[in-house]
Amino acid sequence: MPVSTENPHPRLSDVTASFEKIYPPSWAASWDAVGLACGDPDQPVRKILFAVDPVEAVVDEALLWGADLIITHHPLMLRGVHSVAADTPKGRIVHRLIRSGTALYTAHTNADTADPGVSDALARAVGLTGPLRPLDPDPTDPEGRRGIGRIGTLDQPLILHDFADQVARGLPATAGGVRAAGDPDRLITTVAVSGGSGDSLLGAARAAGVDAYVTSDLRHHPASEFVEEPGAPALVDTAHFASEWPWLTDGSMHLADALAREAGPGGANVEMRVSTTVTDAWSQTFHHG
Length: 289
Description:
Blueprint: H1 12-22, E1 35-38, E2 47-51, H2 56-65, E3 69-72, H3 89-100, E4 103-106, H4 109-113, H5 118-125, E5 128-137, E6 147-159, H6 160-170, E7 179-181, E8 187-197, H7 202-208, E9 212-216, H8 220-228, E10 234-238, H9 240-244, H10 246-263, E11 271-274
Parallel strand pairs: 2-3, 2-11, 3-4, 8-9, 9-10
Antiparallel strand pairs: 1-4, 5-6, 6-8, 7-10
Helix pairs in contact: 1-10, 5-10
């Protein structure tokens, strides 16, 4: 991706090609919608904003900063749509992006399963050290390094109460905060994590023999039944947005490195920013008494 003197910024197609070498779309689940949602492949890219969700507040931030490209973890059109009319929520975003010349690109389950990926960033954010291994390995990876979730250890064991507090301090603050289930004095050494909704991996966490499982969107009945099982890991439930936010920094750094290598001397002349806009669906919490 040589950067010409006439146009000192890479084209959108060059940026997405570099990103897809890190997070190939072929790694995405069959039901997922990843890749370029809107944007002219020939447009120059000077500023890239990384965010979890393609929502109005993120578009506001991108347009105010003058971003040419937004890279989000969650897709704008995960489920099929039949209209992008500007009087619909998704259509309004598409129209704003097109009018401003801002492209939108998504890396979702392909970033989840990557090595390193979303759960690697989560694992480091909550204090796991040493080598990490997949919680649910990708059977198509002969090296066994890719997959959903990660398992690692704490440098120093912590009781569940203190570990949950460490998780809360390592992630962005949200209205829902962090919840824990299990004996608050239980000693935690080995931990499984999975960014985003993770109750489908409760069985994998139990089979792995870890002391705690950190994920998001745990439902009442599966969680309640799980913690009643003898020897089951403790549970730490975080906001969905918060558990995936740490990956944004990793993704931006990997892309910056890739663009710099492609551009050669002088670098790619692209500025990157990680959004700090909290886009968790829940914005308020109320407690009686």
